[in-house]
Amino acid sequence: MKTTFGINNPNDYYKKLLLDQFKEFMTEANYNSPRYGIICAMLAYHLREWIWKCNKEEVKNYLESVGIIKKSKMNDDDYVECKFNEYVNEKCPEFRLIHEICNGSKHFYLKKNGIIKDTYQRKGDFNGGFDGNAIQTDDLVIKDNNNNEIIFKFQLKTVVDFWDNMIKTLKI
User: Fold this and answer.
1) Residue 3, φ and ψ in degrees, nearest 5
2) Domain total for the chain?
3) 3-state secondary structure of 135
4) Which of these, 109, 116, 126, 142, could form a disulfide with 150 (CB 3.0-4.6 Å)?
5) Structural domain range at position 108
6) pTM for the full model?
7) Is residue 101 part of a domain?
């Protein structure tokens, strides 16, 4: 099997691409950068596909061991992949936000009926108080359909941590 620039498996992809890019994004100079943020979202989203394509048997065995699929369905790859997607979305709800950011960057716009209403770059300021809300930092912000403001970097961190745990769980 041919690989891309020496990225041979999901663990390589996670460590050499996603984790390195995430560390760069989380620096003070970059965590308000749409470029770093979108690249991280794309890498975090596509790791799911790498895990599925490279480690189907491990995924199948894991999903069967936690009762998501029955042994009789383990040979139905389409069914199992669908169940894997459902599992990821259930265990890591933030993944859906990352998915929409990733697809929005690919298709030029966010889904009309998605869970994200809007995204923007917030420039921080100082308002003089010291109640914990005095300083707003520069951030990439997601506004959901309930008008909640969600800080992108925290959602992305949750997804990166989820993948770290999944790689360890699957022993890949």
Assistant:
1) -115, 170
2) 1
3) strand
4) 142
5) 10-112+151-170
6) 0.86
7) yes
